[in-house]
Specification:
Layout (H helix, E strand, L loop, with lengths): L1 H12 L2 H12 L1 H26 L6 H36 L8 E2 L2 E2 H14 L1
Antiparallel strand pairs: 1-2
């Protein structure tokens, strides 16, 4: 019963085009691959056209706003990726050892490198 309710909730959140693409991926993979290649080509074409319009001496405000929007979306995407990666490393460090190493950059030498240098000096004596 609960899984049916969850499926309904997920379906209600998805757009009809997303549902169609998912069905197409399962039912007709060749057509789905054609769709993906078409989307890829269109994306390349649109990016190159935008780049050409932005290289003009006076690009339109709309094109500049489009570029800023793309940059903002990329920043958000990168930030999500960094957070996700950071959470994974935190989980690994807490699960593998109780004493996790913390690296702090200071004048191009990390604290861990200083500790390693100190240990080398102790063993050399």
């Amino acid at each position: 019963m609960e899984s049916d309710n969850e499926n309904r909730k997920l379906k209600s959140k998805l757009s009809s085009s997303t549902e169609y693409r998912r069905k197409q991926k399962v039912n007709d993979p060749e057509k789905y691959e054609k769709y993906l290649t078409y989307q890829k080509e269109q994306g390349k074409k649109n990016r190159s056209e935008l780049k050409k319009r932005l290289n003009k001496s006076k690009p339109s405000k709309k094109d500049v706003e489009t570029q800023e929007k793309i940059k903002l979306q990329n920043r958000i995407r990168q930030e999500k990726f960094r957070r996700k990666k950071q959470n994974k490393t935190k989980q690994k460090s807490t699960s593998t050892s109780s004493s996790a190493l913390i690296k702090v950059s200071f004048k191009h030498v990390t604290c861990q490198e200083k500790v390693n240098q100190n240990e080398k000096g102790r063993t050399d004596k």
